[in-house]
TrEMBL record:
CDD domains, alphabetized: beta_clamp
Example GO BP: DNA strand elongation involved in DNA replication
Known partners and oligomeric status: Forms a ring-shaped head-to-tail homodimer around DNA.
Record's GO cellular component terms: cytoplasm; DNA polymerase III complex
Residue stretches making up the DNA polymerase III beta sliding clamp N-terminal domain: 1-119
Organism: Alkalithermobacter thermoalcaliphilus JW-YL-7 = DSM 7308
Family: Belongs to the beta sliding clamp family.
Domain DNA polymerase III beta sliding clamp C-terminal: 245-365
Ranges of residues in domain DNA polymerase III beta sliding clamp central: 128-241
Function: Confers DNA tethering and processivity to DNA polymerases and other proteins. Acts as a clamp, forming a ring around DNA (a reaction catalyzed by the clamp-loading complex) which diffuses in an ATP-independent manner freely and bidirectionally along dsDNA. Initially characterized for its ability to contact the catalytic subunit of DNA polymerase III (Pol III), a complex, multichain enzyme responsible for most of the replicative synthesis in bacteria; Pol III exhibits 3'-5' exonuclease proofreading activity.
Protein name in the entry: Beta sliding clamp
Top-rank lineage group of the source organism: Bacteria
Alphabetized SMART domains for the sequence: POL3Bc
Subcellular location, record wording: Cytoplasm
Length: 370
């Protein structure tokens, strides 16, 4: 194998595929990247058996071939080279030679025969989704994925395509986040559960540019995401996702309209004391056109007032402050609606400008003495 390519382009490609390399694996081959030269392309592949990423860059290829190189070492070397053409070639014993201007490295590589190949996914039958829409869908939901390994199904998100509607849904047992968008569906309806790790990595790779589209294809056990010259293949989670539509309240007794930024600022200040306490709580006392935001801890208390528009009766209710802030931070709308039924029923948070996003949060029970 022998090739010459751009240092900057190669460095960027390594950074992308390294996201699929596990540092915790006991298999030395999985700590490596597969380099494969075909015609005028260099393919770089990282694969931890659950998530695989392939990136393709242009190269002057003199000898086709493949080799596996330690991911961390290779990335560190290429990043520290000058911005100049990089020459890479191998010998029959899988030694890898890297030359750039006055620098020359010799690194021991591994045979590509033992490297796990990415599963085959039909790249012809795919959904096309606007890149900015999908990035926003991930941003507004992925934080609500469960971190509890005893509930593996909730460590992923439900991707649901029905007609021209596409939805992502995350649930962790305390909250639910769902975002819906519009696509042109020429493939059919589908429901799959995508691991949160894969969605986080996709979100990092997506630039979020308007006018560009990503392609998604599925098998029974895998999903393929095509983003420019990058392929991301992830296994799907198996099992039944919670019927989230049954969780969403159909009506409310109290509705508050409030500035998103002002409410977030209030909660951020109140949470400074809330996180000093045992329960991380902030309490809302809703009266007419004022909502009082309070928090008490052993070292003190805080009280904030915020103007609201109110439909319904008075209410006292408390929430985990971190969960509240995480939901508010991803809402772009200037104003939001908070919908309540009782002080022990879920609260629904929606942007004022539409219902394409819903954040449901369970309250924390408070004693009458609080």
């Amino acid at each position: 194998m022998k090739l010459i390519c751009s240092q900057q382009t190669l460095s960027n490609a390594i950074s992308t595929v390294q996201k699929a390399v596990s540092s915790k694996t006991t298999l030395p081959i999985l700590k490596g990247l597969l380099l494969e030269c075909v015609q005028d392309k260099l393919y770089l592949i990282g694969n931890d058996l659950e998530l695989g990423i392939q990136s393709c860059i242009d190269a002057d290829v003199f000898d086709e071939g493949s080799v596996v190189i330690d991911s961390r070492l290779f990335g560190d070397i290429i990043r520290k080279l000058p911005n100049a053409p990089v020459e890479i070639y191998t010998d029959n014993e899988f030694n890898i030679y890297i030359k750039c201007e006055f620098s020359e490295f010799k690194i021991k590589g591994l045979s590509p025969e033992d490297y796990p190949r990415l599963p085959d996914v039909d790249e012809e039958m795919f959904y096309q989704i606007p890149e900015d829409l999908f990035k926003n869908m991930i941003k507004q939901t992925v934080f609500a994925i469960s971190q509890d390994e005893t509930k593996p199904i909730l460590m992923g998100e439900l991707l649901e395509i029905e007609g021209d509607n596409i939805s992502l849904i995350a649930i962790d047992g305390y909250r639910l986040a769902t975002k819906t968008g519009q696509i042109n569906n020429n493939v059919g309806n589908i429901k799959v559960i995508i691991p949160g790790k894969a969605l986080n990595e996709i979100n990092r790779i997506l630039a979020g540019d308007e006018g560009r589209e990503i392609k998604i294809s599925f098998t029974e056990k895998h999903a393929l995401f095509l983003i420019d010259n990058t392929k991301i293949i992830t296994r799907l989670l198996e099992g039944e996702f919670i019927n989230y539509k049954q969780i969403l309240p159909k009506e409310y007794n109290l509705r508050v309209k409030v500035s998103t930024k002002k409410l977030l600022s209030c909660i951020e200040r109140a949470s400074l004391l809330a996180k000093e306490g045992k329960n991380n709580l902030v309490k809302f006392s809703i009266r007419d056109d004022i909502m009082l935001v309070t928090s008490n801890s052993e070292i003190g208390n805080v009280q904030e007032e915020i103007s609201i528009s109110l439909e319904g009766e008075d209410l006292d209710i408390a929430f985990n402050s971190r969960y509240l802030m995480e939901g508010l931070k991803v809402i772009d709308s200037e104003e939001i609606y908070l919908e309540f039924t009782t002080n022990v029923s879920p609260c629904i948070i929606k942007p004022e400008d539409g219902e394409k996003y819903i954040y449901l949060l369970l309250p924390v029970r408070i004693s009458s003495s609080r």
